[in-house]
């Protein structure tokens, strides 16, 4: 993790927590800086374990957000460009995208940053295709997240890519975080908490998660919440940044991934148990969402799932 002067403490703490050493994960995190002491936006300083040599030795380089975004030291940019040229994975949290953009890492790619800085990123870096209203953008070996807590979503997405849904969900539970939020959800939700006089729909979401194998039509969800369908859709989108049906599909795919990792059940049974009906339907959604098949996903993650669970 490359911490530039003016680093945002929360942006730095998120990957530090998620990628900290655990028995079930292979990650080793090193805090790097241009100097041994790194200043933060909160007024205190941090001690970097390594310099840019640590960046050059890393398989994944993460740049947390920093301010001002015009403070772009050339040695750091060179190290980021070199990491990209050598095929390393390069990641930014929040305004860390400005360092990646200045280093040329984002040229020709899609990226995002905090919604308050979207216009600035788009204006200053014409070679970057800036995506608005998303939590994070995955371009393979280059990944960027939107503001602050969206870094949690991106880091858990990386764990899910590397180690599977079971390990990512276990880490999420430890953080008391949502186990999966799709990157395409809106990063700026006008009403992230329940409006005064209205009850949160979290109870209905928990109720649905316990019944993913059942047909959960929109009218069923709205009836459980005690609202009309139109009101339910509006409030659900205000609270989560996505539609009820898209949220339900993501939840079902998440359940399917866990079942593929932790059981030997045939694909058609998993499709029924997660509410996607048939193996054909499950394969269709897997291909659209993950660009793979259930069988290939199981081969990639099933072997080590019991060992991770035991750890």
UniProtKB/TrEMBL annotation:
It comes from the Bacteria. Coiled coil: none annotated. SUPFAM superfamilies: Class I glutamine amidotransferase-like, Homeodomain-like. One of its GO terms (molecular function) is DNA-binding transcription factor activity. The keyword Lyase does not apply. Keywords: DNA-binding, Transcription, Transcription regulation. Residues 202-300 form the HTH araC/xylS-type domain. This is Transcriptional regulator GlxA family, contains an amidase domain and an AraC-type DNA-binding HTH domain.
